[in-house]
Automatic annotation (TrEMBL):
Lineage: Bacteria, Pseudomonadati, Bacteroidota, Chitinophagia, Chitinophagales
Disordered: annotated span: 680-715
UniProt-recorded name of the protein: DNA 3'-5' helicase
GO biological process, one term: recombinational repair
Catalytic activity: ATP + H2O = ADP + phosphate + H(+); Couples ATP hydrolysis with the unwinding of duplex DNA by translocating in the 3'-5' direction
Example of a GO cellular component annotation carried by this entry: cytosol
A single GO molecular function term of this UniProt record: 3'-5' DNA helicase activity
Amino acid sequence: MNANYLDDLNERQREAVTTLKGPLMIIAGAGSGKTKVLTTRIAHLMRNGVDAFNILALTFTNKAAKEMKERVEKILGGNEARNLYIGTFHSVFARLLRSDAPKLGYPSDFTIYDADDAKSVVKTIVNELNLDDKHYKPNLVYNRISAAKNSLMSPEEYQHDYYVQQEDQRANRPLVGKIYEMYAKRCFKNGAMDFDDLLYKMYVLLKGFPEVLAKYQHKFKYIMIDEYQDTNPAQYEIVKLLGAVHENICVVGDDAQSIYSFRGATIQNILQFEKDYDDVKVVKLEQNYRSTKSILNVANEVIAKNKGQIEKNLWTDNTEGDKIKLIRTNTDNDEGKFVSDTIAEQKLRNHYANRDFAILYRTNAQSRSFEESLRRMAIPYRIYGGISFYQRKEIKDFLAYLRVIINTRDEESIKRIINYPVRGIGKTTIEKITIYSNEQNITFWQVLENAREFGFKGGTLEAIENFVTMMHSFRVQLEKQNAYDVAVQVGKSTNIVKELFNDKTTEGLARYENIQELLNSIKEFTETPTEDGELLDKSLGSYLQQITLLTDADQGNDQDSDVVKLMTIHAAKGLEFPVVFTVGLEESLFPSGMSINSREELEEERRLFYVAVTRAKSRLFLTYANSRYRFGQLQQNEPSRFIDEMPDQYIDRSYAGGMRNAGNFGGGGVSWGGMFDKRKTPAQQSTPVTRTVSKPVSSGAASNHTPSPNFAADDPAQMEAGMDVEHQKFGFGKIMSLEGAPNNRIATVVFPKGGGEKKIMLNYAKLMIVRNSG
DNA sequence: TTAGGCGCTGTTTTT
DNA sequence: CAGCGCCTAA
C-alpha cells in the first residue's frame, strides 16, 4: 500500500483522518474531498490495527458505498478491505435482519416491498375498510405511514398522539391511524418489510433484544456515516444505539446539502450532533478542489440566504474561470435545443467528451425535451432515475413468482401472479380467498393449498390446484438447483417467456429482452462470488432482497461509457461534472410550487439549487423558458427567484435578455451562435401543435350480417381449425387456429365480409359450425 | 372472465 | 400528457 497516503491531504483533512477515537463530526463543504477523507480514514484505522470486521460505514446510495469500497481497496492494496461492512443503511440493515428477523416473527427470507408494493397494500386496506380511495389516496396515506415509521412511531402511538391526530382530523382523514395499524399487520402477515421497516424493525430489534444489541455494539467498534445531514430520526437512534458503548462515531455531512426532508430526514441531526455526545471533535473541510471561483462564489452567496447554518467559509485556489451563463429561451423545446447545440459547440471549441456534460433538472418529467434534441443531434446520452429496471411490469411479474417461491406468505405477490398468465382465477375467486384468509387468520397461500376444503369446485378448483402444484414444484427444485435454473424453469413452466417471445410488437420485444436481462442478472449473481463482508449468500432469497434496494443509478457499467448524463438534482448529489446545465429555473418548477409555503421548504429548495451549482467544475449554464408544456398545456413561467439571488458580477446575463422580464427571447434579437435562426415567432408559437394522428386501421368493416334463421351456437369443444363457422354479427368465416385452456378456448377466425381476422373467445361469443350438406 | 376503449384526474425529489 | 378506473364488447 501507499505508505504516504497522509501526504496527499491538507491539514484539515489530515486532522479528520487521524482522529480515530471518540465522536467526530466532519463538516465537509461541497467538493472538499469528503470521500477521500472517509476512505483514507478507514484505511488509516486499519493501518492502526483496527480489524476490518469492526468497521461499519453507512452511506445513502449503493453507488457511494461501492465507490468507497473501491477507493479503500486502492489505498490498502490486496484484499484487506473485503471484510469491511460498507453499504447503504437499507442494505446493511436488510442483511442484519436476515439473520435476526425470526426473533420478530418474520421469516429470514422476508420480502422487501418497494414503494409500489407498499402503496398497493395500502390501497387494498383502504378498500377493505370501505373508504373512498379518492379521499384516502394511497399515496398520501402511505406518506403518512412512512413519516411515522421514520420517526419510530408505532401504529398505537400514532393513534394516541394528539398532534398527529389533530393533523389527520384537519385533513379530514381521521382513519389514517387505523389504516397504518392494519397495514403493519398485513405486512407482518405477508412476511414483508417495506423500506421504512428496514430501519424501523432494526430499531425494534436492537431495543427489544439486548443480546442482539450487544452483539452488534461489540462488532461495530468504529462507525462512519456519510451524508449525515440526510439521516432521519430512525437512523439517528439506531446509530446512537450501535455506537453507545465505544462512541467511535464519525459523521460526515454538510448542512448546506440537506435535501431529503421529504423522506423524513431532519437537518437537526447534524445541527445537534455536538450536543448529543461529550467531547465532540469538529473538523471543517472548507477548501474546495472542484469548482472555479466564479461557480463557488455564486453558490456561497445564494446559500447565505438560508438561516441557521453551521458557520463555514468555503473557498478555492482554483482559477476564476468563465462567468456563469444565464440563458432564457422561449419554450421548453427551445431550451432543449439550446442545451444540445451548446454541447455540440463546446465539444468542438473546448474538446470536451460527452461524458463531461450533465443536464440537471428538478423533476424527472423535464427530461423529454432534452432527449429529443440530443437524439436529433446524435449526441449519446443516458437518463438516470425514472422507472428503474426492477419496477417494470414484466420484471415485477416475474420477480413475484420468485418472491412467492421464497416466501409463500407474500400475499401481495401471489395476487400479482395468480392469474398471470391467465389461468381462470379471476376477481371473484381472489376476493373469496381473501375473505377466507382474513376470517380464518391464515395466509392467502394456505387457503390456496386447501382450496377443496374451502368449497372451490370445478374449473376454478382445478386452476387453483394446478397453480399450487406448480409453485410447489418450484420450491422443491430450489432445494436442488441454483436460483438461475429455477428462474429459467419458472419462465418455461408459466409460458411467460414464450408468450413474450411471440409478441412481435416493439414493446413485446423490449419486454422479452428485459426478461432475458433479468435472467442474466440472476445468473451473474449465482456465479460471481461477492466480496460483501460476511455475505456469501448466493440464495434466491438473498438475491431478491438485494435487488429491491437497487436503484436505476446502480445499474449498468456506465463509468466508461461516453455519454451525456441526464438526472434530477437529487440524483446528482455527490457527483461532479466539468460542464453542468441546470435547467428549468422557473418559479413553481424550481423552486417547486409544492415547496414555497414555508421558510423551511423554500430553504430546502435553495439548498437543492446550491447542490446543483456546486456539481460544476469549470462551466455552468443556467437556463429557463418563458413557457413550457405542463399538464399537457402551455404555461407561462416567471424566472426563478434564485436567479435574482445570484451576484451579478459572476453572471453573464447577455443571453437572458439583459434583465428580468425584458421582452421575450424571440423578439429580443438575442441568439446563441446563430443557432436559433429558425425560431418561431411568438404568434406561431402560441398555436398549439396538432399532430396528424393516423386513424387506427379499422378492422371492422360494416358488419351488418343477418344471422341464419336456424342460428344456434355450437359447443366450443367441437371447434377445430379449418372449420367453416357462422357468427351472428360477422357472418361466415373460417377458423384458422385455436389456443387457450380447454375450458377457455380462443379461436382465430377469418371473416371475409366481417372485417377479416378476429380473435373470438368461444365461451362468450357464440359460433355455429357450418355443416356442408353438399 | 378479459381486453380494450374512453374519460377523469393529477403531477417533486428517492432508499 | 400520462396512468388509472370504469364500462362494454367479445
